[in-house]
Queue: 3 jobs
Job 1
Amino acid sequence: MSVPRYWREIPHHFRLVGTVCKNCGEAFLPPVKKCQKCGSEDLEEKEFPRVGKVLTYSIVYAIPRGFKNQKPYPIALIELENGARIVAQLTDCDLTDIHTGMLVEAVFRRITSYGERGIIKYGYKFRPIMEEKPDQE
Amino acid sequence: MRKVYISGVGMTKIGAHWNQSLRELFAEAAKKALDDSGNLTPEALIVGNMSAGELDNQANLGAYLASYIGLTGVAAFRVENACSSGGAAFHAGYLAVASGIYDIVLVGGVEKLTETPTAITTAALAEAADQEYEAYFGASFTTLNALVMRKYMEHYNVPYEKIANWPLLMHENAANNPYAQLPFKVSKETILKSPVIADPIRLFDCSPTGDGAAAVLLISEDKLNEISMDDRVVVAGVGMATDTLPLGHRESLLTLNASRIAAEKAYKMAKITPKDVNVVELHDAFSILGIISLEDLGFSKQGKGASDLENGKFSRDGEIAVNSSGGLKARGHPVGATGVYQIAEITLQLKNAAEKMQVDNAEVGLAHNVGGLGSAVSVTILKRER
C-alpha cells in the first residue's frame, strides 16, 4: 500500500469514520457514494460508535504476509451500535473465550510493523467489554 | 441476437507445470480446442486471467498470447474478474458472437500460480478482497470464507461432519478426471483430521493452487451451417451479476446474492428451471461455497444443501450431477482458467464425450463461476441440440 493511500485512509482506519445515509440511516464503513439500501446520494461522514458485537469469527492459522508474528489471531465480522458491519481483528482476549454475540469495543492498535514500503500500519482492533454482572453485595 | 455454439474445447492437466511457460500452457489448450473444432480460424481471442501481472510480470496478454499461437492481427484482449475471469471472458465471447460482430471467437483462460512462494501467490489472490478494509487488517481470502462458514453452521445448526461430505465427493469425482490436479479419493477421516487453516476451515475445504489453461471455440449459427457438426452444444442462457466487495455491506452471509441474480437471468434466458438441469459445474473454492451455491442456484432449499449432499442428490448417479470433474476442490482452481474449464467440461458431458466422468443422459448443463467471495458471478447454461 502506497504512502498516499495509507494517508487517505487515516480518518477511517484511526477514528472509524464512515458514511451514514441521511434518508434511511444505513451506515457504511468503508464509506460509499450512494446508499446501498435506499439509493439515496444524501450521505454524511460521521465518526462511528466504537462498541459492537461479534456476528461471526475465525481463528487464522495460515497467515498473510506481514502478520506472521501474530499467529494465530482472531478475525471477526462486527456489528457496531449504529448497524454498520466491519471486518476487524480481535485483541486482548483469550482465543477460547471468543463467541458469537460477544460485546467488543474498538481500540487503536498497530496492525503490522514492517508492511510494504516500510510503513508501520495502525488502525482499529476490537477487544471484549467486561459484561456487567449483578452486584454481589 | 444470434444463437452461439461451442464447436471445440481443450484443457491441460492442472498441476505444477514448471516445464511450461504461461504462453506454452495456453497454446496447448488453444491448439486442442482448435483441433477439436476442425481447425476453424478465430477472428478474436478473449482470455481470462487474474494474476499474470503480479505473478508473471506480464501484461498485454491479448496480443502476447494471440501472436504466440499464430493469430497475429486478430482482435484480442484479457478479461479480469478475479476467480471468475474465465466465466467473464466466456460472457464477453458470447456477446461478441451473438451480437453479429464476430463469427468465430476463441475464449481461453490461463493461470500460473506455482512459480512464486505461497505467500506471494496468496497475496495476489487476496487482491480479490477489499485491500483497504479487509486485507489491511489481516483478513485473507480463506478467513473471509471462514466467517461465512461459521455463520452458516451456527445459523442452520450444520455440523462440520456434514460439510466434510463436500471434499469427499469432489475427490471421488476427480479420480475419474484425467485433467484433475488431485485425482484421488480421500477418506472422511483424513478430511476431519486435516489441519485447521482458518477455523472452521480445514485444509481439505480449500481448493489447491495450480497452473492450467483451458479454451473453447465459440461460433455463430451461420458458421455452424457452413460446416458439419453432429453434436451441437448451444449457449442457451447467460447471466452475470455483482455484489459488494466488503462482506459487511451485505445483508446476509448465508447467500451470494450475485449468484442468485446471475442464475435467475440465465434460467430465464434459457427458459428452464433448476429442475431441468442434469449436469453442473459450480464454484467450490471452499466447501462452504459449494454448499451455499447449491442453494443459490436453486438445487437445494436454503440451509438444506449439506443434507441433500449427504443423501446423494448431487452424486454422479444422483438427481443432478454436481462437479463430476471434481470441482475446484479436486479438479483444481487455476483461477482465471477455472470458468473456462467448467464450460469445457459441461460441453464434453453434453457431447457424451466425458469418458469416465460421463453422466448418463446429460442434456442441459450449467456452469457457475464466482469471483471474490461472490462479488462477481457468471452463470452459463448449455444445451445439447438435436
Note: The mean pLDDT of chain B is 96.
Job 2
Amino acid sequence: MFELLEKSAYADWFLLSMWGFPTFIAIHSVGMAIAAGLGLVLSLRYFGFRDQFNHSVLQALFRVAWIGFFINLVTGLALLAPRISEYLFDPTFLVKMAFVLIAVFGMYVLHRDFRLFDRRPEKNTMRVFAALTVTAWVGAITTGRWIAYLSGLYG
Amino acid sequence: MIQKLDADLSWAYFLNESALHDWVLNTWYIWPTLETLHFIGLCILMGPVLVVDLRLLGFYKELKASTAERLVLIALVGFAINLATGICFLAGNTWKYAEGNLAFDIKLVLLLVLGVNALVYRLKLEDIFQTKEVTNLSRLVGGISLLLWCLVIVCGRMITFFAGYS
C-alpha cells in the first residue's frame, strides 16, 4: 500500500523536482493562515466579541475557514504521500495529526453551535471548545514547524 | 563594485555583528521557536485581515465599524510579532536574506505595496462600514490586500529555497 504511493510517478516527480516540495509547502502555509486565522476569529466570538458578527458574516467565515482546511488537507496529502512510511512513524508528525483532529473537531462543534443556536454564543461549554480549537491550532502549527527539526524528514 | 556593495549593505553588517545575532544563533532551539512564533503571528494577522477584505470585496455587507476596528488592532498585534521575529531572522542569518534572495526581495516589495494599500483603507474606506456599500475602491483595496498577503506568505515560505541561488 505504502509502496504504491512511494513508487508512483507522482512521488518520483515530487522527490526529484526542485519545485514539488516548495510549491506544496508554500500553499500549505496559506491554507494554515486561512484555517487557523479564521479559527481564531470565530473563537473570539465566545470571548468578548459576542455581538460583533451577524449571521451572514459568520456563515461566510465558517465556509472560508473550511476551504482553508480543505486546501491543507489536499496539500498535506500531497506532501505526505511520497514519504508516507517515514511520516507515519514520526512522533512529531503523529502529535501534529492529533492536534489537527482536535482543532477540526472543535471547528465542527463551533460551526454546529452557530447553525443551531445562532443567537446565544455565551454558553460556558462552548467557550471551552473555542479555547480548545485555538490551542489545538497553535499546537498543530508548532509541531508542524518542528517536524523539520526533530525528525529530519524535510529541511 | 565591492565598495558599492559595502555601502549598500551597511545595515546587514550592523545586524550581523549585533548582540541579537549572537542570541538568535546561541542555542539551537531559538531559531525554530522564532519560526513557530512567526507562523502564529501570521495567523493572528491573516484571520482578521481576511474578515475585513471579504467585507470590502462584498462577500457580506454587514460588518460593524467597531468590529472592523478591533479586528485591525488584532491584525496589528500579529504584524508586530512578525516584525520582531522577522528582524531576529535578519540578524541571525543575515546573508541568507541580504545577498540577493529573490523571494525575500519580492516579499519586501509586496509588504511596501500593502503598506500603501492599508493607508488608502485608513484614509478613504473606514466610513464604508456605516453605509453597507461596496465600491470599486473597496473592491480594489480588499482584492489587493487578500491577494498580496497570500503572496507574502508564499514568498516568505520560499525564502529558504532561494537562499544562495540568486
Note: Chain A touches chain B through 35 residues (CB under 8 Å).
Job 3
Amino acid sequence: MSKTQVNMTVNGNAVSALAEPRTLLIHFLREEMNLTGAHIGCETSHCGACTVDLNGKSVKSCTVFVGQAQGAEITTIEGIAQEDGTLHPVQEAFREHHGLQCGFCTPGMITRAWRLLQENPKPTEEEIRYGISGNLCRCTGYQNIVTAIQAAAADLSIKEAAE
Amino acid sequence: MISAAFDYHRPGTLGEAIGLLTEHDGTAVVIAGGHSLIPMMKLRMATPEHLVDIQDIAELSGIAVSSDMIEIGATVTQSDLIASDELFSVCPILRETSLQTADPQIRNLGTIGGNVANGDPGNDMPAIMQLLDADYILQGTGGTRTVKARTFYEAAFFTAREEGEILTSIRIPTPPFGHGHSYQKQKRKVGDYATAAAGVILTRSAGTCTSASVALTNVADTPLWAEAAAKALLGSDLGAEAIGEAVDAARAITEPASDGRGPADYRTHVAGIMVQRAIQTAISRVA
C-alpha cells in the first residue's frame, strides 16, 4: 500500500509525483499540483464542482482514483484561458452574462461547458441544460449560465467562421 | 471521504486480470468506471485490498452488431453506448435508457458491465437486459460460462457471479426489425435512481401483438422481468383492456422499499404508470 509513481499530462505539462493509490484525482490536482481551481463540493459525484477533462471527456475528479488517470491528458479550469491570461470565450461569456454569483460551481461549470461546446458547437437551450445536468448551481437558477453558454457558442462560431 | 488503503493493479490482458483475482482471492475487486465502487469505498462499505482496473484490456471494449446478435464488451461506457449509431439502429432502447442514467460526466466513465454486474437494484440496465433476454458472459479460472440476465440477480448486490469471475461481455439477441420500444423512468432529479421505471418492447402484425417483453427497475431487491404482464399483451389488440391487464400484472410483482423516493404503495402505483406509458409509447413506435 506504499506510494506509487503517477504520471500524467496536466494542462499540457507532463507531471510526475508519488501518491497513494487511494488518492482521488481531485486531491492529487489540488494538493500535489496546487491546482485549486476545481472544487470539492459534495465529493459524492453529484455536484460537478470537481469536473475536469480527462482524455477529452468531462469527468468528476472526486470519483476517479489517481491510478485510473495514469498516463491521461487532464485539463482543469487553469488550462482553459490562454497563457497570456486572455480569457476563453466561455469564461468571457460567464463574466459578461453574470453566469455566476458565489462562484463555487463556476470552475466545474465552465470546464463542462467548454467541453460541451466542442462536442456540440451549436446546442439548443435544451441540449445545454441537458449537457450541464451533472453540474449543480445553488445561486443562479441556471438561467444566466445557459445564457452565457449560448453567447459563448455564438461567439465561438463567429470566431470559427472568421478563421 | 478517503477510502481504505489498497494496492492498484492495471493488467493488460484478461488472463492477467483473472490471475490477480485468483492470487488475491476474496480481497481483490474489479474496477471499471468505478462510479458504483468508489462511492462505496469512500463510505468504507467496500474495503478491497486490491483493485484490478480492467480499462486497458482491449477485448472488453468492443460493440459488435449482427442481424441475430449484439455483443457489448464490459468496459463499454454509457457514453460509448449512446454514441453508437449502429447499436441505436437495431436496439434503440439501449440509448434511450443510458440517456436516463446518471449525468454526462458519470456516463463518460460508468460502464455497461459495471452497471449490470454490480447488482444494485437501482441500476437501469439490468431490467433492460432481462427485457431483451440477454446473456452475461463470465470468465474465471474455470473457463467461460454464460448466465441469463433473467436468472443472474439473487438479491440486492448478490448475483450469480463468483468472486473470481469477471463479466466480460453481454450478448443480446437482436430484437425483431420494426419493434416498438420504450423505457419510462420516474425520478426525483437528474442522476437519481428510479422511483420506479419500466421497459417494454413489442411487435405487432395485422393489429395483433405478436411478441412482448416487460421489465421493471427499482421496485424490488432485484430487477423484475414481468412475464405475466407480457402475456397479457401477447395475442391482444393492444387496446385499453389488454394494457390494463398488463399494468395490473406488473404491479402485482412489485415489492418496493419505503424510502426517500416514497412509500411502497406509491412506488408500486408509479410502476403501474410507467408500465402504461412504456406500452403506449412502444405501440406508437411499432412499425
Note: Chain B has three domains: 7-53, 61-173, 192-285.
